[in-house]
Amino acid sequence: MKLRFVGIDPNTGTGESPTVWVDEDKHELVLQGWKAGPDLETECASTEIPGHAKGIPDHEAVIRIPARMVSILREACDAAERADLR
Phi, psi (5° rounding) for residue 29? Predict the structure, then answer.
């Protein structure tokens, strides 16, 4: 696995570090964020999405990324496109 670090929450403090990488081998964005609480998980799991089963599979997670990281996410998306990770 070859992870390319893209960025970390600019307001990171001790123990809190939402982070973004690009996995160039698996062609994926890798996100580290805050765990969703039970209320957010319930809301996500109960939202109707056409053509998509309700719920959150055991192998998936809902995480939170602060809006101040939008530019970091854009940079990761641009890096993924340049590396033809689509």
Answer: -90, 140
Q: What is the rounded distance in angstroms from the CA atom of residue 41 to the CA atom of residue 25?
A: 30
Secondary structure (H, E, C), the chain: CCEEEEEECCCCECCECCEEEEECCCCEEEEECEECCHHHHHHHHHCCCCCCCCCCCCCCCCEECCHHHHHHHHHHHHHHHHCCCC
Q: Which two tokens stand for residue 21?
A: 């990488």
pLDDT digits (tens, 9 = 90+) for 26-72: 888 999 999 999 999 999 888 888 888 888 888 999 999 999 999 99
Distance from the Cα of residue 21 to its chain's centroid: 9
Structural tokens at position 73? 């996410």
Domains of the chain by residue range: 3-82
- Which residues, 6+ apart, have CB-to-CB distance to 67 below 8 Å? none
